[in-house]
């Protein structure tokens, strides 16, 4: 037994993959890992911004942040990235953070099929098939004493209907990833791979920012904590789930929302 904080929450010398890791919640999680000695691979579709972010974070934390530009909304893109990770990390990775996402808002009568498909592809299909392609890689580092981890980034909109816009596909997709998390957890726990999800509330992100013109004041006023989420909030929770402290937490979806789901 070792209850020292540095042991309980240690992710040093581990390797993580964070999809959509160049901005928003993904960047917050990435920085949390890097700040604590964990190498991180990040993905995005915009190459220049992705590479600039990776260089910035590598310099800031003196830990490798490796960018890979890819469109993960297609199985071809998933296969390409999985092959890259398998080649670069032939001994396995420790953490897969399925964070990349998309939203689309439109009135019910006008909601387009391409919007529905885009949102469900990146929010549900991509995490499933990336998990499928990297599961053997995760198994290489997995053990009973130190399981590898998958953390799916869901949303409180998958638990209750949000107040901003008519985002039908997003709500459905995030509800789907919550249930998919439970199903994957049931199957993979026997292979020493622990699967959980986080359901964030409002954070400073490109997705939410566009919906509110990057003015978060009224969002903060509606929140029981009277603020939006911070990097410490989301990174801390993700590190918990990936550390020794979270090794016995399986198949859960933990809200990180200032109390929006449970107190309003």
From TrEMBL:
The keyword Cytoplasm does not apply. It comes from the Bacteria. Keywords: NADP, Oxidoreductase. One of its GO terms (cellular component) is cytosol. GO terms for molecular function: cholate 7-alpha-dehydrogenase (NAD+) activity. Belongs to the short-chain dehydrogenases/reductases (SDR) family. PANTHER family: 7-ALPHA-HYDROXYSTEROID DEHYDROGENASE, 7ALPHA-HYDROXYSTEROID DEHYDROGENASE. This is SDR family oxidoreductase.
């Amino acid at each position: 037994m070792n209850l020292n904080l540095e042991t309980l929450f240690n992710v040093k010398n581990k390797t993580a993959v964070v999809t959509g890791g160049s901005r928003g919640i993904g960047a917050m999680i990435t920085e949390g890992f890097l700040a604590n000695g964990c190498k991180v691979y990040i993905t995005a579709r915009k190459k220049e911004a992705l590479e600039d972010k990776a260089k910035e974070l590598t310099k800031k934390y003196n830990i490798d942040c490796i960018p890979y530009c890819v469109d993960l909304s297609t199985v071809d893109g998933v296969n390409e990235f999985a092959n890259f990770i398998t080649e670069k990390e032939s001994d396995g990775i420790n953490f897969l953070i399925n964070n990349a996402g998309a939203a689309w808002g439109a009135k019910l009568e006008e909601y387009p099929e391409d919007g529905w498909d885009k949102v469900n592809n990146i929010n549900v299909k991509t995490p499933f098939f990336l998990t499928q392609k990297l599961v053997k890689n995760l198994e290489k580092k997995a053990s009973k004493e130190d399981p590898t981890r998958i953390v799916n980034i869901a949303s409180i909109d998958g638990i209750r209907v949000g107040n901003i816009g008519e985002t039908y596909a997003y709500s459905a997709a995030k509800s789907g990833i919550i249930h998919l998390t439970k199903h994957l957890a049931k199957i993979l726990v026997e292979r020493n791979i622990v699967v959980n999800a986080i359901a964030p509330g409002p954070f400073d992100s490109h997705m939410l920012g566009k919906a509110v013109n990057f003015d978060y004041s009224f969002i903060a006023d509606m929140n029981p904590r009277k603020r939006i989420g911070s990097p410490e909030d989301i990174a801390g929770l993700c590190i918990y789930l990936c550390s020794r402290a979270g090794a016995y937490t399986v198949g859960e979806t933990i809200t990180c929302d200032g109390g929006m789901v449970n107190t309003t």
